[in-house]
TrEMBL record:
It comes from the Eukaryota. SUPFAM superfamilies: Ferredoxin reductase-like, C-terminal NADP-linked domain, Riboflavin synthase domain-like. This is NADH-cytochrome b5 reductase-like. Residues 39-157 form the FAD-binding FR-type domain.
């Protein structure tokens, strides 16, 4: 693992010994050309995004002039960005020709899951969430909707809060017997709804998804029937849902 702190310290020591702080500036300027550096990130402009399949996209980035990435066969690059307020880094192998000039292409595949759980119906959702978060290459976006009677009835709060810290996991709570959000801890107020998970709220949640999700449902028979009806009303086909 490359120690970026040690590299930065070494550059500073060389600049101090030479009495020339411009050596630090010169290093930073390197990030403006197309020659990649293992200890720093280089900013490139995104020129286009092409959807190839329902969950696969081709991203094209611009390179200055007619330059190329100058990667050897089998080498990969690390892309960095901010998603849902969290910094995300992923390794990709460009799909563009090695001698492509002025651009490079990256293929990114996404998936989207919507998990609807009522009470103990949360149990089968947790292994799914953990399998996604434990796999660094899994870029599935997940929205988990937990339905409980009250805030006190929510179980496994620490685990759910920990899962919600992942860049690709969103967790909402729907509390049927709570009348006000003001009594809840502030960290829950933004992602909690009072009342029942009805058709209007379901549409709101689906519309907030990045793309059409595949839905998993687990709860009482009445809950499962209601959710299936709401999803159908929102335009999701039966083959886009699974009921535990």
């Amino acid at each position: 693992i490359f120690d970026t702190y040690a590299a930065a310290l070494a550059r500073w020591q060389r600049a101090r010994a030479a009495g020339n702080m411009e050596l630090l500036v010169a290093h930073e300027a390197q990030s403006n050309n197309s020659e990649l550096n293992p200890d720093s990130f280089t900013a490139f402009s995104l020129s286009s995004v092409e959807q190839l399949t329902e969950d696969t996209y081709q991203y094209r980035f611009e390179l200055p002039g007619n330059s190329s990435l100058q990667l050897s066969l089998g080498q990969h690059i690390v892309l960095r960005g901010v998603v849902n307020g969290l910094e995300v880094q992923r390794a990709y192998t460009p799909i563009s020709p090695g001698n492509a000039e002025g651009y490079f292409d990256v293929l990114i595949k996404y998936g989207e899951l919507l998990l609807l759980a009522s009470g103990t119906g949360l149990a089968p959702m947790l292994p799914i969430l953990q399998s996604i978060t434990e796999n660094e290459e899994d870029e599935t976006f997940v929205t988990l909707v937990c339905c409980f009677r009250s805030f006190g009835n929510i179980y496994l709060k620490p685990l759910l809060q920990e899962l919600a810290r992942y860049w690709n996991i969103r967790i909402f709570y729907v509390l049927s017997q709570e009348s006000s959000l003001e009594k809840l801890p502030w960290s829950y107020q933004e992602n909690t709804y009072t009342g029942r998970l009805n058709e209007d709220l379901m549409r709101t949640i689906i519309n907030s998804c990045r793309r059409k999700p595949f839905v998993l449902i687990c709860g009482s028979s009445a809950f499962n029937e209601d959710m299936s009806r709401y999803l159908k009303s929102a335009g999701l086909e039966e083959n886009s849902c699974f009921i535990f």
